[in-house]
């Protein structure tokens, strides 16, 4: 794995059992996250973003399995660990400490029966050794870092006593308290209104600067990608179709699906006066993907050749796309 990378995913295949057969949810997914950088994983609903993050965290549901691939992770002590080879106990030690995750809906991850102070403190109790007074002090400091007003008093609040934005701040505090090197954020602001969303994104950027962590940022929102990402991997129907630095992805788009995502939403990358054009059709069910390029049935550029398998290939330095075209005109 590259010297600067903290995580390197190669050829990841994930399969789910159900109704007497197995379907492939991730096909040959590869990407790398640099130290201190943010990689956005972007795509429509069902493209495999969440399955990717669960596979990384070792949290796939019981009917899912990693059928192929390697997940190399650079430990804080410099060792490179292969996550697929770790035992349950080692994986648990990594989770929450070195790799932690925040989800879209904080209410489903916070326990309604415990105060937020207890829940943040619990992370320290599980992963670090310290007395109760130090734990309380560290928890208050963390709540202050995520800009929760009157942190010492708020410690004793229950999740339902807080607003959605405050609960998301608590989730971030829980994820950050052990100073992880990699934060996986799965649509962390989707459930919030626009002003609060902007505040949470600002906060994450600030914490990234302070802590130097890498972020895997999962989103379907190209506006959020533009604001947060250094690098972007675009997913479609369980595969990565384009990967590049954020500027190249927006200004030198190589895959028609990425172009479709950019054309279907307003944003500063659009030409003035241009109409928003939604991508026609929807993501095909995993069990009945077309042969060759999975996007071809929805693609305005499709040719008979697209029924053959298309590999992710280098179109420019640090720019990969799985398309027979050299590029598509800017959206
Ligand atoms: N436990 C499961 N059993 C069977 N299939 C599953 C399971 N979990 C996810 N899948 C399938 O894997 C595919 C990818 O799902 P995933 O949740 O990763 O998509 P996503 O891109 O994160 O979408 P969203 O934005 O809606 O969360 C979907 O087709 C989904 O049906």
UniProtKB/TrEMBL annotation:
Lineage top rank: taxon: Bacteria
Cell membrane keyword on record: yes
InterPro entries recorded: AAA+_ATPase, ABC_Ni/Peptide_Import, ABC_transporter-like_ATP-bd, ABC_transporter-like_CS, Oligopep_ABC_C, P-loop_NTPase
A Gene Ontology biological process term: transmembrane transport
Cellular component annotations (GO), alphabetically ordered: plasma membrane
A Pfam family annotated for this UniProt entry: oligo_HPY
Localization per Swiss-Prot or TrEMBL: Cell inner membrane
Domain ABC transporter positions: 9-262
CDD domains: ABC_NikE_OppD_transporters (cd03257)
Family, similarity comment: Belongs to the ABC transporter superfamily.
Entry protein name: Stage 0 sporulation protein KD
Organism name: Martelella mediterranea DSM 17316
């Amino acid at each position: 794995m590259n010297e600067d990378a903290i995580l390197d995913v190669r050829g990841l295949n994930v399969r789910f059992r159900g109704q007497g057969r197995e379907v492939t949810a991730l096909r040959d997914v590869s990407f790398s996250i640099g130290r201190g950088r943010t990689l956005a994983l972007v795509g429509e609903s069902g493209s495999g973003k969440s399955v990717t993050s669960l596979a990384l965290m070792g949290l796939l549901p019981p009917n899912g399995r990693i059928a192929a691939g390697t997940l190399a992770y650079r430990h804080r002590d410099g060792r490179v660990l292969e996550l697929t080879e770790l035992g349950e106990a080692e994986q648990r030690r990594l989770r929450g400490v070195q790799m932690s995750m925040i989800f879209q809906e904080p209410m489903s991850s916070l326990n309604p029966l415990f105060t937020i102070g207890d829940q943040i403190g619990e992370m320290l109790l599980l992963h670090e050794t310290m007395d109760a007074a130090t734990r309380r002090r560290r928890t208050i400091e963390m709540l202050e870092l995520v800009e929760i007003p009157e942190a010492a008093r708020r410690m004793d609040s229950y999740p339902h006593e807080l607003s959605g934005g405050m609960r998301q701040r608590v989730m971030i505090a829980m994820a950050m308290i052990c100073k992880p090197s990699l934060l996986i954020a799965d649509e962390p602001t989707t459930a919030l209104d626009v002003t609060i969303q902007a505040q949470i994104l600002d906060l994450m950027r600030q914490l990234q600067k302070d802590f130097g962590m890498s972020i895997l940022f999962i989103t379907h929102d190209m506006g959020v990608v533009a604001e947060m990402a250094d690098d972007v991997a675009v997913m479609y129907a369980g595969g990565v179709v384009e990967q590049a630095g954020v500027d190249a992805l927006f200004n030198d788009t190589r895959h028609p699906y990425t172009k479709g995502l950019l054309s279907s939403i307003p944003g500063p990358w659009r030409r003035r006066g241009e109409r928003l054009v939604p991508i026609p059709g929807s993501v095909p069910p995993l069990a009945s993907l077309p042969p060759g390029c999975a996007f071809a049935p929805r693609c305005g550029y499709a040719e008979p050749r697209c029924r053959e398998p298309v590999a992710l290939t280098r179109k420019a330095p640090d720019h990969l796309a799985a398309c027979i075209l050299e590029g598509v005109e800017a959206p």
